Amino acid sequence: MTISLRETAGIGGNATQLTLTGSAGGQQFQPLTFTADDITSHAGTHHVDGHATLAIPMSIVYNTPTGTANLTINVSIQITDDRNNQVTATGAVNVI
Q1: With a cut of 50, which residues of the chain have pLDDT below it?
Q2: Which of 66, 69, 79, 91 has the most other CB atoms within 10 Å of its CB?
């Protein structure tokens, strides 16, 4: 999968932490947390320019309680913008 972090306000920033939390069949899995260095190793940088998109490619292997692919992944990205403001971007993806 590729997580796309899109900046829309015109102020760049650094993704400092990315957390993925999966859930399936009423069970929540342990969160996977990635640091700025981890993000850089996946995407080549952890900085997103103003009005740009940072694509973070990832591969995740998981097993659900029922063995089916029905999984929800909640995404949370901590960002420090170029004016030193702290921002959290969130989203969710359903894997079917």
Answers
A1: none
A2: 79
